[in-house]
Amino acid sequence: MSWLDALGWFGSALLVFSLLQARILRLRLLNTVACAILTVFNALIEVWPMVAMNVVLAAINLWFIARMLRERNDADAFRVIEVEEDDAYFQHFLDVERSEIATFNPGFSGVTESASRFAYLVVHEHETVGVVVVRDASDGVGQVELDYVTARYRDFTPGEFVWRHSGLFAGHGWRTIRTPDTMVGAYYERLGFRRDGDAWALDIAGVARP
To answer: What is the tens place of the pLDDT at every residue in 66-87?
Structure first.
């Protein structure tokens, strides 16, 4: 196999691999690299229709990537909607994402209705991108029971919106938000949380301590 054949096979394999990605930003990035490689390959063998197609696909990917990167830090890109714990759609979402939720929140066993528990859907346009469940643990502490983002949106920052920009916890009287000890892949340090044993804690600004 010549180096040119190897280049073509590698570009084709990367193109296929990119389509297997659940994370949409990663898919676009890998697909762009594959299109660039295939553009070079097809130009070298002078297959101009394929060159044109890959150039157009790369340009489309770059447009979407630029849009996604803008939305990563755009507080208007996401919304938080409070729902009842027994809401049919909320429970359906938990059921569909059950195995993924268990991977990142191994201590989570489900949501039951309680006056001290609050459930939220995090949405981007019409798509649900995550869920947050917080329980009033008394003494001014809101205990996070579930904080989950779907695979498609893990390259984005819905968590930053939830914890820093949404005003989600205003009116509950919580001075501190505390995460579960068992959470996998915690991302809280860059959002202003501090270590609290095996968990993370966030002090809520503007809530006076007794």
So the answer is: 988 877 666 677 888 889 988 9
183 token code pair: 């959470």
Q: CB of 179 within 8 A of CB of 144? A: yes
DSSP 161: I
User: Once rounded to an integer, what is the mean pLDDT over residues 13-23?
Assistant: 92
DSSP H helices in the chain = 3-18, 24-44, 48-72, 88-96, 98-104, 158-160
Once rounded to an integer, what is the mean pLDDT over residues 160-175? Answer: 75
Helix, strand, or coil (residue 160): helix
% of the chain at pLDDT higher than 70:
92
Q: Residues 185, 191, 196, CA angle at the centre, nearest 5°?
A: 70
pLDDT at 156: 74
The whole-angstrom separation of Cα 142 and Cα 178 is: 6
Enumerate residues 6+ apart whose C-beta is below 8 A from 5. none
Pull the structure tokens for residue 127: 């798509």
Backbone angles phi, psi at 141, to 5 degrees: -115, 130
Map tokens 């938080």 to a residue. 80
